[in-house]
């Protein structure tokens, strides 16, 4: 092993070798330290990420906890935090400052404090401020500079397993230097985004702010915001079917939330109309990214199901059986609508046809895009094409979505009662189909509203030009 590279906790040689590797990993990275505590889930998360590609050799949380107590037999347990955000902590240990994972631990600790919902209470309960003040009480701890929302500014989330493997393969010293430099480069970019937002809005004079707050000026800059957010979205996650890591998706979600927070902080004290306009656009941006990261996460899991021929075969067989059950016949009658209404003829059984076409694809392809393209085609036929106006589209979209949700829920109920073997596969498929329909319909509504905003600005410009012409 290259010098300076920590041992991976996923050792070989059966359970004994595996447990020995974890014990050594705990000894190398943690130490007894009175007055300090480490969140249990955070400790296990670092262990799991350290295992990396050796995921098959991971131990479960219960076994990991037993090994922790084997290394630190007098360890206590405390439940810290406020109601709704309390977490169990190992009391009496801390991570070593010399640990390869120290920076990652500090980042994760700050991130979890940020998402706890009660930063002040959580900070007091974990005695985090005393850690900064009592520097030197424990030789293996040092303060971490944090921003106002609680996440470290000086550290960037690392991928320790990859760095270890590359350090073994190439020069350890060079790899460590390169990884440090590149992470600093990434951190600088992220930090500069926040600085750019703050510096622009805080530099505006009062008369400029009042001009920007006028409705037609707000409308113009709204068009620019749309282009900005689309550009950021394309860079971060152009297509949710891209094969990206779970950690990357977490980073995208965190960045979008921070972006919104930076903007809101920068706009504090500005006129209400301007704040409302900016808040609306950035909220759409955050929600769209959240949908895409959620879909990307589910797509990664569903791909594994589609590659398992046995699971797909059982799922397809069970779905064919369920579609002919009496329980679903009841739901079909409930969804049939008013027979006297001609519009219902178009909608009648559209969701059943859609689901049947998707079931027929099971076993024929492992490419997830084939299923989603099929679903898109059905939405095009049953919702988009029949719509002659925005109001009619919203009505048809809401109707289809209600029927679609009702049908998928009925199938889930039947799966729970009679087909336990395929319930897990169906649950993933169900969530993906549900969220994809929501994403497509919601994105269409958002794009139409954006086009209307652009159109209204063009109309204003046309009217203004006609007024100045002789």
TrEMBL record:
Q: Which domain of life is it from?
A: Eukaryota
A GO MF annotation of the entry reads:
RNA polymerase II cis-regulatory region sequence-specific DNA binding
PANTHER family, per this entry?
DNA-BINDING PROTEIN RFX8, RFX TRANSCRIPTION FACTOR FAMILY
Q: Which InterPro entries match?
A: DNA-bd_RFX, RFX-like, RFX1-4/6/8-like_BCD, WH-like_DNA-bd_sf, WH_DNA-bd_sf
Q: What is this protein called?
A: DNA-binding protein RFX8
Q: Which UniProt keywords apply?
A: DNA-binding, Nucleus, Transcription, Transcription regulation
| Main function | May be a transcription factor.
Q: Which residue intervals define the domain RFX-type winged-helix in the entry?
A: 22-97
